[in-house]
Design a protein that fits this description.
Nucleotidyltransferase, domain 5; alpha/beta; 213 residues; two-stranded parallel ribbon; 5-stranded mixed sheet; 6 helices; single chain
Length: 213
């Protein structure tokens, strides 16, 4: 199966989409296809990256700067949220949106996307990992380690996007072979309850599994 996808990742000032703000957005648009021998091919089409200006009075907490290495200096001259997300939408339109922990990323972008014409088609690779490997951790770093996908500079948007693209291509083939439904599926679990359900999402509830998060 050939498809055009856009893998996205946002870095933010915190985890609450109702109170926190985006500081960086990255995306890779690519064509993913089967190679005819049980593997896959990735043809990268383009990359998108921007910092995002914060509203007046909003600062990046020190612990977030320590985690992401994004500081106030990086945001000088950055576009507003509306401009940044509108540009992302035009970069990503007519493609499936892919994100690791898609409910988190979509919660931050949906306000703008929904006004432009978002169709609600996405894949959450964290959910995909739980569906393909239910006994294993679904953390991006752990999935990458399990499948030999490089993840350098974790918690910077483009680095996470690059890794997620390859994770998606690997797990997609496994899901297709095993007849696993994964498109628009999000996972609600005791250890990681859903805080936001994207439009059109199919919620699957999974009981606690040791080491899986």
């Amino acid at each position: 199966m050939n498809e055009i996808i856009t893998v996205i990742d946002v870095e933010t000032t915190g985890l609450d989409h109702t109170a926190d703000h985006i500081t960086e957005i990255a995306a890779i648009r690519a064509e993913v296809s089967a190679d005819g021998s049980g593997g896959f091919k990735i043809r990268e089409i383009g990359r998108f990256q921007t910092y995002v200006a914060l509203p007046d009075g909003v600062v990046i907490p020190p612990e977030i700067t320590e985690l992401t290495r994004i500081s106030a200096d990086d945001l000088h001259g950055a576009p507003t949220l509306e401009r940044a997300l509108t540009a992302l939408w035009y970069f990503a339109r007519h493609s499936y949106i892919i994100a690791h922990n898609a409910p988190f990323d979509l919660a931050f972008v949906i306000r703008i996307f929904s006004t432009i014409g978002y169709s609600g088609e996405f894949v959450c690779t964290r959910a995909l990992s739980r569906l393909v490997d239910p006994e294993e951790s679904a953390r991006l770093a752990d999935v990458c380690a399990r499948y030999g996908v490089p993840l350098n500079g974790h918690h910077r948007a483009m680095n996470d996007v690059d890794a997620t693209l390859h994770v998606y291509a690997i797990l997609r083939e496994k899901a297709e072979i095993n007849g696993i439904t994964y498109r628009n599926v999000v996972i609600d679990s005791e250890e990681r309850p859903l805080k936001y359900v994207p439009p059109g999402a199919i919620v699957r509830t999974i009981k606690r599994t040791e080491g899986a998060a």
